[in-house]
Amino acid sequence: MSGFVEVKSLTKVFPNGTRALDSLNLSIEQGEFFALLGPSGCGKTTLLRTIGGLEQTTEGFISIDNTDVTFVEPGDRNIAMVFQDYALYPHMSVEENIGYPLKVRKIEKSLRTERIKTAADALQIQNLMERKPSQISGGQQQRVAVARAMATRPNLYLFDEPLSNLDARLRLEARTFLKQLQRELGVTTILVTHDQSEALALADRMAVMELGKIRQLGSPVEFFHRPANLFVAAFIGSTPMNLLNGKVRDGKVQIGSTQIGVPTSVKSVAEGQEVVFGVRPEYVQVASAQSGGFTGVVKVLENLGTHYLVSIDCNGILVRGTAPDGEEPKPGTTISLLPDPKRALLYDAGSGNLL
Ligand code: ATP
User: Residue 23: left if φ>0, alpha if ψ -120 to 50, beta else—which one?
Assistant: First the structure.
């Protein structure tokens, strides 16, 4: 069965020779909230713009709702887009801006008014309805652009950093609204974001891209708990994962002078294999010296509110764990940090792939 959005062998080479998309394949189901993540320049925006028809493909094809749209004009794709440069019509009021696509689609006036009001209420711009775009702030303009897209009810939403100009509180509220409305309407949505917590919070599935290719595709839970390779492991997580070089010796992982048990999820490793031991600091706890973890001197303590991030120097290797607020160790003291074997991961050092 094919997905609602199908991207096949998509390549985009810009005239200056930059290969922004490299034979990329992607299938998105009807009604899915899909997020695209990746470092700056990996091709996220290009992929979104190509699906939207704002960029022409170099090779490959795109279908939406079982229709090949590779050469279809953006206006004929029945999609609503909000891009970073949310172009509002300068001569129209906020209300007219939100209602314009509905007017073009000849939506009846009372329904138009209702849709405009729902979107304006949700994005808290009711008091700006009479103003022109030049008379409101950047964050407010962005909210108008989102409201305009939300009022439209197309087949597909394409959002490129739609909340980037909002302050932290508004951003959280707006993202809850996005998710709620997307659920209610069941409109397939693709979101490009720099903010991984936004992707983890909103997406049914997500992809991490690198150099015009997808490096991993899956649910937010899979990304957080089982990054498929070292690139994704290093990229996902608000506090970076511990990624420690080691070698399999006597059925254990030798990291510097410390021997740690092979993580529970690993099926097989070869004696002498070069590996990278990965574990999120959230799954590394302060333990007694006999518990068999990493022992070292506390170098840095970072207060994260409910808990502390504890960094120790274990014979030249930096290991991070966490301690509950009130039970944090003192800098300069020697402690042990014990990784949870059920949460730890092992990567092959050569290929970078999860074992
Ligand atoms: P960011 O997170 O910084 O927005 P991105 O992942 O969205 O990055 P793209 O904007 O898709 O990345 O860019 C992918 C690559 O294509 C980059 O190397 C970029 O410099 C290049 N690129 C983008 N647009 C053009 C263009 N019009 N002409 C030439 N190269 C371009």
Answer: left
